[in-house]
């Protein structure tokens, strides 16, 4: 079974609008971390936001917030006030704390911001 | 800002050549990783290390090898490059709740 599932291969959003990128995960480890990365066309991976499985509140970093629904095993990324520079691939990832500290990545979502 | 470096950034090489992709980090992280990624596709873990003298193979079968003699250095070696090795190679290091990536090496094998 896939550890991380991103069901949206491509998304479009109007500039200045908010957009939600979906991510669901599968784990039996009670302790884990969830991550979102941005990868522009230059190829570098940029860390955006982190959510721990025991964190009570949703993580926020500037215009990025993580909508963490533990019972549903979802960790959607919300980008508010989209900018043209947000156009990129976005990857959701998970690290299981008790099974070797490997990171598992989803297949990514390509976001295009329309002027 | 993460301090993790990869060289070379771009490499074009002929089939059968031996190559080493360099990765170094100055953050003192114990855990380091190598991923292979085709353009616009998901990342595949090929090797990881939990510390000096500790290396493990990842999920993706690979003809590459790694070494971890020093904490800051985690080179990846292809003994005999093939066109199927053409890809981007990303090095990363992590500590606690963060994983930082290097800029990547784009490898083309002719």
What percentage of the residues of chain B does DSSP assign to strands (E)? over 45%
Class per helix and strand makeup of chain A: mainly beta
Q: What's the number of helices of chain B?
A: 0
What is the succession of H and E elements of chain B?
EEEEEEEEEEE
Helix content of chain A: under 10%
Average pLDDT, all residues of chain B: 92
Oligomeric assembly = heterodimer
Mean pLDDT of chain A: 94
**Percent in helix of chain B:** under 10%
> What is the 3D form of chain A?
globular
Number of helices of chain A: 0
N→C terminal distance of chain B: 35 Å
Query: In angstroms, what is the radius of gyration of chain B?
Result: 13 Å
Q: Using CB atoms under 8 Å apart, which protein chain pair has the greatest interface?
A: A-B, 23 and 25 residues
Number of strands of chain B: 11
Task: Please tell me about this protein's structure.
- The complex is a heterodimer of chains A (115) and B (110).
- Chain A is an all-beta fold.
- Chain A contains no helices and 12 strands.
- In chain A, the strands form 3 sheets. In chain A, strands 2, 5, 6, 10, 11 and 12 form a 6-stranded mixed β-sheet that branches.
- Chain A is globular.
- Chain B is an all-beta fold and 110 residues long.
- In chain B, strand 9 and strand 10 form a beta hairpin.
- In chain B, 36% of the residues are buried.
Please give a quick description of this structure.
The complex is a heterodimer of chains A (115) and B (110). Chain A is mainly beta.
What characteristics describe this protein?
heterodimer, A: 115 residues, mainly beta, six-stranded mixed β-sheet, four-stranded antiparallel β-sheet, globular, B: 110 residues, seven-stranded mixed β-sheet, 11 strands
List the helices and strands and how they pair.
The complex is a heterodimer of chains A (115) and B (110).
Chain A (H helix, E strand, L loop, with lengths): L3 E2 L4 E5 L4 E3 L2 E2 L6 E8 L6 E7 L7 E2 L2 E6 L4 E6 L8 E9 L6 E3 L3 E6 L1
Chain B lengths: L3 E4 L2 E4 L5 E7 L5 E7 L5 E9 L2 E4 L6 E3 L9 E3 L8 E9 L2 E4 L3 E5 L1
Parallel strand pairs in B: 2-11
Antiparallel strand pairs in B: 1-3, 3-8, 4-5, 4-9, 5-6, 7-8, 9-10, 9-11
């Amino acid at each position: 079974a896939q550890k991380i599932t991103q069901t949206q291969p491509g998304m479009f959003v109007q500039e200045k609008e908010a957009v939600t990128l979906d991510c669901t995960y599968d784990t039996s480890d009670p302790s884990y971390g969830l991550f979102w990365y941005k990868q522009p066309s230059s190829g570098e991976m940029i860390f955006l936001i982190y959510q721990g499985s025991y964190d009570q509140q949703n993580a926020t970093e500037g215009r990025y917030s993580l909508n963490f629904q533990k019972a549903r095993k979802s960790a959607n990324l919300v980008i508010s006030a989209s900018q043209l520079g947000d156009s990129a691939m976005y990857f959701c990832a998970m690290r299981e704390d008790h099974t070797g500290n490997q990171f598992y990545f989803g297949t990514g979502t390509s976001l295009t911001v329309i002027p | 800002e993460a301090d993790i470096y990869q060289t070379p950034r771009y490499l074009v090489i002929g089939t059968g050549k031996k190559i080493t992709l360099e990765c170094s980090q100055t953050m003192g992280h114990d855990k380091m990783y190598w991923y292979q990624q085709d353009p616009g596709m998901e990342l595949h873990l090929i090797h990881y290390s939990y510390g000096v003298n500790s290396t493990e193979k990842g999920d993706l079968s690979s003809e590459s090898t790694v070494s971890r003699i020093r904490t800051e250095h985690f080179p990846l070696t292809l003994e005999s490059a093939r066109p199927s090795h053409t890809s981007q190679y990303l090095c990363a290091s992590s500590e606690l709740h963060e994983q930082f990536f290097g800029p990547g090496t784009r490898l083309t094998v002719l």
